[in-house]
Structures are given as C-alpha cells and as structure tokens.
Specification:
This protein is α/β, with parallel strands linked by helices and 468 residues long. 54% of the residues lie in helices and 9% in strands. The two termini are 36 Å apart. It has 23 helices and 8 strands. It binds adenosine-5'-diphosphate and magnesium ion. Magnesium ion binds next to helix 9.
Amino acid sequence: MISNIWEQFLTIAREEAGSRVVETWFKAVTLARWDTIEKVVYLKAPNTFVQKWIQTNYMPLLHTHLGRLLHVTDLMVVFTEEQKDTKVSGASEDPQYRAAAVVQFDDDINMVPVEKKMTALVKSSLVNHCGNINRTYSFDTFVVGPSNSLSYAAAHAVTEKPGRLYNPLFIYGGSGLGKTHLLHAIGNEIKEKDKKAVILYQTADRFVNEFINAIRFNKIHKFQQKYQVVDVLLIDDIQFIANKEQTQEAFFHIFNVLYEAHKQIVFSSDVIPNNMSGIAERLRSRLAWGLVTDIHVPRLETKIAILKKKAELSNSILSDEVAHFIASRVTSNIRELEGALIRVMAFASLTNKAVTLELAQRVLAHAHAQVDQLVDFDRIITGMSKYYSFTLKDFRSKSRNKELAFARQVAMFLMKKLTDKSLRDIGNFLGGRNHATVMHALHKIEKHIQDNPDFAYKLKDIEAGIRA
Ligand code: ADP
Ligand code: MG
C-alpha cells in the first residue's frame, strides 16, 4: 500500500530530522501516486509554501528514504497541486473545479536565502535530536497550566531528591502534550545540580532495538552494564515494550538493580500502567510502584501562554491576537500547535513580513481545513452577512442586481465547499435555482479566485469566520 510507504517514510523522517520537522512540514503532505514505470513519486502539498520549504530543505531526505522504501535508486520526486475538495461529487467531478482551491503562496516567497532569513524558532525546528538529552527541553521552557501542573510538580520534585521521593515516576498522557519535554527537563536539571550524575534517556523502542542487536552480536553483558551503571534512567514511551517478552525480562532485571540502588527511574507512556496490555504482570505492577501522574490537553489560556513562550525563546514577539488565533485553531496537541507557529514564523520571515493576524490566517487557513467541522447553510449566510449586505431573502429573490448575483454565487461556492450537500440542495435552498445555475456559479467563482488574489483572501476570511 502506497499510504503505508508514506507512513514508513514519516517514521524514518522523525528519527532523522526530528518529530517537529515531520509535524510542521511532512504531516500535511500526502503521497498521491507512484509511477513504477517512470519511477516518479507524486507528492501533494497543502500549498506552495510548504512545497517550496520541503524542496529547499528536505529533498535529499526524500530521495534517500523514499527511494529505499520503493526500491529504486534514481527516484524522481514531483509535487502536484493539492486537489483539496474531495467532497465534490457527481456532475462537478470536473478537474477544473478540483484544482481550484489552491492557495497561491508563490507570489512573494524567495526561497534562496532561506538560511539567512530563518528565525531562531524555525532553525531550532531543524536541529537534529542527536545526543542523549535535549538541552532545549528544560523546566524553564515548560509552561505550567492546569492540564500539566501535577506532572510538572512531580517531575520537579524528583530532581530535588533523585531516587528517594517518587520512584519510579510514571507520566502518562496523549501524544504531543509534553511528556518527552518533562523527561529531558528532569535530565537537564539533575545534571545541572550534579555534574557527575550519569543520566540516560532512551525511548523504549530504541531500547528494544538495542536489546535485539545485543543478542545478535553477543553483547548482552555490555548492554546490561550500560543500563545498570546509570544514576537516572529516563525511559520514554514505555508502551513500546509491549509484547516483547525477552526485552521485558531484560528490562525487569535492570529495573530491579536500579531500584534497589535507589537510582531514579522515570517513565512516560500514552496509557496508565493498569491499561497497558502485552506487559508481564510483574513488570506492570512495578511501573506503578511510585507515583503515576497525567497530562491532559491544555485549555486555550495555556496554549496561548505556550505559543508566547516559544516565540519569546526565539526572540520574536507574538501579539495576543495572533497567539489567540493560532491557539484556537489548533486543538489537539502542543506539537501541532508548535508546528503551526513555526509555519507562520517561517512564512513571515521568508516574505519579510510582520506576523499579523492576516498573515497567520493565510498560512493556516488551508493546512487545517480538513479538521474543521462541516457547517450548514444558515451559518454560511450569517457568515457572509459580515461582508455582503444581503439577506437570505435577497439571495432567494429573482433579482438580477449585479452585486447581489455575485454574492449569491459566492454563497453557492461556499455551500459546495463547506457542506456535503448536492448542487440540487444548494439551488433549492437559494430560491429554487437549478443544478446548472449552481454549477455555473462554482466555475465563475473559481476563476475569480485564480485571477484575483485579493478576492481569494477575502474568501478565506469569510470561510474562517464561518468555521470559527
Ligand atoms: P509527548 O512526548 O507528550 O508526545 P513532547 O514532550 O514531545 O510531547 O511535546 C511536544 C512539543 O510540545 C515539544 O516541542 C514541547 O516542547 C512542547 N510542549 C509540550 N508541552 C509544553 C509546555 N507545557 N510548555 C512548553 N512547551 C511544551
Ligand atoms: Mg514523546
């Protein structure tokens, strides 16, 4: 399966370039087609900005790993235009329509002097996660709010008396909510206080791989030793040890040695120990021996504070307005929130523009469109009334007033785009107009969008308003 190939590529890219890079740039891209004869891979980016960024920074990564996954040496990677509107069906399955929703970003981006222009924030997103502890993940850079205060407090307490207070500490919560950050913060803080402390951070899946290799190359003893001499062991995403019985056994042994020597152990996971399946009971119970704390999805205030903190760390200032917009736009997790911020900052820095609300709307409108809720006709009419002085009654009337007719066509376009209703439904709703009239309106508005960037932005605004 071709989508599997892309998933595999994302996993490799995460390892090589860091999960922030994947979240910011590659997540929005899909592998559209793989031409086995010509050896061409077609990728779809949500807009030309993301496309250009990837082309400037990550072509070698794409060539190397996609090539390997597809078993070809001279792979060609081609970006095709996003065909956003998959909801279009039936008669409007017209290619002209489907290619129309592309946001034009190429107008003012010059990608050549990328390196020079990048903000610190963007640069930091490009840094490879090499070495053991990531210095940027400290307690200072962690924003505390109701969703994470318990885990933060526990993590901090652990650094006061490693191995004595909460051992092991087990932090659980959804993806991208700060678990890895806290593990590194513990490592950094303890190291700060005690330069001689031996601290080891490892993800559970790397631990598994290391163990497998140790067996293969007859180095089990060395492997055990490496883990038994540490003062602090930070194991990230421990759930990945599930169903790996032999690894669990080896780990069980390491755990016991460290625990008895009062060495601090910290775990992170996406589930609580009780709900972890595929883990031997004796190990599972040990995971919960100390303190178990959780991290939730933050509320708006915390998200805004995090955005401001991230901006501040890169010596940029984010206005309340923009922070609020980004925070309310990205709901699921902080990694995505950060990705959105980085995209906005990168775009501003490459186009030499200030980070305004308008710019943020432009950059983010498209990328997150797919997570937005479907809306109904009434909401569209209400949303439009802020921009056009016509009522529903006007829209339904027979009047052919030029301005009104145009606004009516905009309404049709938005209804097709934002709802899953048929052309007939739309026509009926707007005064019993027929299917062909609606079709004509769609084509006309699409053309208008392409010829007229100002109108395209205005439409984006209206759309954002309707979705909000
Ligand atoms: P997890 O390990 O839970 O999947 P991470 O620790 O990798 O999540 O966090 C994802 C990103 O979000 C990181 O860049 C991290 O710095 C950031 N982040 C998460 N929580 C916070 C917070 N409370 N304050 C500042 N940054 C945060
Ligand atoms: Mg993590």
